[in-house]
């Protein structure tokens, strides 16, 4: 799995020349095997775009083409067989519709999104949000509610996909201030899916595995910035941007005691859209997680030019 918000460089460089109207994908945000499919089929109708389709596929399966859910949803796009029977398409034109084949499943996900968008086109409100709600709860409930229904699961689903969409999209221009931060994010994205290891520094002897602060330390070490080893020491490695000042590359910290930086127990690398890349805990893998949780402590900007861009108090 590859997942990152592409930042700090010109959008044209990020897309690697790929065409398609609407939002383009950030470089490296989608596994290479699927990038062209997502870019192409993400422009199937006005209610979707490549970044939105990528966010939806990541949310559904984490790019795993072999996953099966407890509800028997299958493959990278998580279709249940009955829905696939009526909405699956032969995306690669090889004469069959294979629920397990991303070359069919990704086009089918886009096609199904666009069909749902047609079903709810007369519903008030944001057309894309209504389409996503229909995907999660069914078009009838969206029509009956006159918009996204008051179902917690559905509301959270729409919110997550729209936040993830921002993180998959290539920027339309240059976002300052730091290429070092972009490099650290790029390092972390290559480790997505790697199992967590307590005390892990990513060495060959450790199977390339990390714990949370081992990942952040290695990511910034790859761009020439040396950080302390543990999370609560990393918090003191630079100035502290406020939540509304965060930029991709900032380190974000979590604690059970929001009054004491020495009690910090977790750190990740902010990637935009309210999300971070982190190594969460034993039994988990390096992944993409939200930062706006009750234990969010604060952030640190460790790049020199980034730190200079922060407001100063007199």
Provide a quick synopsis of the model.
The chain is of the alpha+beta class and 314 residues long.
How would you describe what is shown here?
This protein has 314 residues and is of the alpha+beta class. Helix content is 37%, strand content 9%. It is built from twelve helices and five strands. The chain has helices at 11-15, 32-41, 50-61, 81-87, 102-119, 127-137, 139-145, 152-168, 179-189, 212-221, 231-234, 304-308, and strands at 251-255, 264-272, 275-278, 287-290, 296-300. A hairpin with a 2-residue loop joins strand 2 (264-272) and strand 3. Mean pLDDT is 87; it is low at 1-21 and 173-177.
Fill in the keyword field for this structure.
five-stranded antiparallel sheet; 314 residues; alpha+beta; 5 strands
The helix-strand sequence is: HHHHHHHHHHHEEEEEH
Distance between the termini: 45 Å
Strand count, sense and closure of the main sheet? 5 strands, antiparallel
Rg is 20 Å
In spatial order, strands of the major sheet run 4-3-2-1-5
Approximately how much beta-strand content do the residues carry?
5-15%
Report the strand count. Answer: 5
Overall shape: it is globular
Question: Are there runs of 5+ residues with pLDDT below 50, and where?
Answer: 1-21, 173-177
